[in-house]
From TrEMBL:
Pfam families: Rsm22. It comes from the Eukaryota. Mitochondrial ribosome (mitoribosome) assembly factor. Binds at the interface of the head and body domains of the mitochondrial small ribosomal subunit (mt-SSU), occluding the mRNA channel and preventing compaction of the head domain towards the body. Probable inactive methyltransferase: retains the characteristic folding and ability to bind S-adenosyl-L-methionine, but it probably lost its methyltransferase activity. This is Ribosome assembly protein METTL17, mitochondrial.
């Protein structure tokens, strides 16, 4: 019995030694990154993580909104807010005049070709031409989206608040967090919010940078919306001091092109402009007023994404006749490159959008967390404080991360302007990158690094 127990003990010890040797070899054989991209952070807080947990409205803002809703009592508020949400989400850009003419010419040509095949000698050509033109006009009216501007009076402003206050705040807060996380030393003193609406940008920026903001200029053409935004700041009490100081409301932009702001934001504003020329003019004007960062946010639809790409092309490619600030525009987020968006070149065209979970404004039937899908663009005049080291690159996660056993599926937009489906494993991409991938979410950045493989010699027992 004793000999058997000694033999079993020896075998266990032998197995333990082999297991330790195997682990050391497999660990050493994993690829090692050339660059320390973690910078001392935990994998779940790596430098590419910019997503937020479920966002809540600031308590003072939520209480003020509930007080206004209770005081004014707009009839059928919940139903009307849902209809407005659906309308804004499905809203398309107005069809440009040039595209409308091209469509009309194409339809007219097609109808003439069909008519010529069936034409008779006694047909009056003038009458046929009139019929074709009437048919073209009728078809254009039936198939062309009719864009109409929204005029926000007191009633519609409150419906908009019930529909979009929490979702709009969540999207802006997430976009601003990209700057706060990646440029921690940035502390803006001045902010311009164009198309300020309910003032959600002022609240979101205050939650990011607090009292470093010394001047917040909110510009909105709707007087009723400006009044409502000011009521929200004062907690629905005219005699109270505003919760955020130094907020000024205007109906028009400051005239002087030399007046610049550290941070300029236009959230859900470009979709309120009737055509591409107006959008280009507004984006150019806002860029002139930008000292550090310009932030644009729209719905996460095809229309919203394409408006972001329109704005990007205007600022990266258009040369101004009079230059007041010679510092060029560069894309800060979300794109890791300045080439054509690969999602627009791929059929079917899918929007590049991101999502943020949030707690909605408490209304009847609204208690569960909701998800805001949005597209955004951040352009910068400032150069990064620390240039990206050689051997390190960052890709943007453009779809949900799928974690599986010992591997992670990551769909990314990369700095070479291409979309990539990367299956991340510890053996192929290093343990650090693998753990970062498992802790990343849609919208975060993921490191793409070069590796150094270490060769390890394993000595057998006979050599030892």
């Amino acid at each position: 019995m004793a000999s058997r127990s000694y033999g079993a003990c020896f075998l266990c010890q032998r197995a333990a030694v082999v297991n330790i040797m195997f682990r050391s070899v497999s660990s050493a054989s994993l690829p090692q990154p050339k660059v320390d991209f973690l910078k001392g952070e935990l994998h779940r807080k790596h430098p590419g993580v910019t997503n937020l947990k479920t966002v809540r409205l600031p308590e003072q803002l939520q209480l003020a909104a509930q007080s206004i809703i209770h005081r004014i009592r707009v009839p059928q508020l919940v139903e009307r807010s849902q209809k407005l949400t659906n309308f804004l989400w499905s809203r398309k850009r107005a069809v440009e005049d040039l595209m409308l003419r091209q469509k009309a010419v194409s339809m007219e040509k097609e109808l003439w070709e069909k008519a010529v095949q069936n034409i008779r000698e006694d047909v009056d050509e003038q009458l046929l031409e009139d019929r074709i033109r009437k048919k073209v006009l009728s078809e254009l009216r039936r198939t062309t989206h009719r864009w109409t501007p929204l005029k926000y009076d007191e009633d519609l402003s409150i419906v908009y608040m019930a529909a979009r206050l929490a979702g709009g705040y969540a999207a802006v807060r997430r976009a601003l967090n990209e700057i706060k996380k990646r440029h921690p030393s940035f502390a803006p003193q001045t902010l311009l919010d164009f198309g300020s609406g309910l003032g959600t940008v002022a609240w979101a920026s205050h939650s990011c940078w607090g009292d470093s903001l010394k001047e917040i200029v909110c510009v909105d053409s709707s007087a009723a919306m400006n009044v409502l935004a000011e009521q929200l700041l004062k907690g629905d009490d005219e005699r109270a001091q505003p919760h955020i100081k130094h907020v000024y409301f205007r109906q028009f932009l400051p005239v002087s092109p030399k007046v610049q702001f550290d941070l300029v934001v236009a959230a859900f504003t470009l979709s309120e402009l009737p055509n591409a020329n107006d959008r280009a003019d507004v984006v150019t004007t806002l860029w002139r007023k930008t000292n550090s960062y310009l932030v644009l946010v729209e719905n996460g639809t095809k229309e919203g994404h394409q408006m972001m790409m329109e704005a990007r092309d205007v600022l990266l490619k258009k040369q101004e006749k009079v230059v007041h600030d010679s510092r060029p525009a560069s894309v800060f987020a979300p794109c890791p490159h300045e080439m054509m968006c690969p999602k627009l070149a791929k059929e079917p065209v899918m929007p590049c959008n991101f999502h943020q979970r949030y707690h909605p404004l408490p209304l009847p039937g609204r208690h569960e967390c909701q998800t805001e899908k949005f597209s955004y663009l951040i352009l910068s005049r400032t150069k990064p404080a620390e240039p990206t080291p050689e051997g390190l690159d960052w890709g943007r996660l453009i779809a949900p991360v799928l974690c599986r056993t010992r591997h992670v599926h990551c769909h990314m937009c990369c700095s070479n302007g291409r979309l990539q489906h990367m299956v991340v494993t510890a053996r192929k991409h290093s343990r650090d990158v693998y753990r970062c991938a498992r802790n990343s979410e849609w919208g975060d950045q993921l490191p793409i690094v070069e590796y150094v493989k270490e060769e390890t010699e394993v000595h057998s027992d006979s050599e030892s």
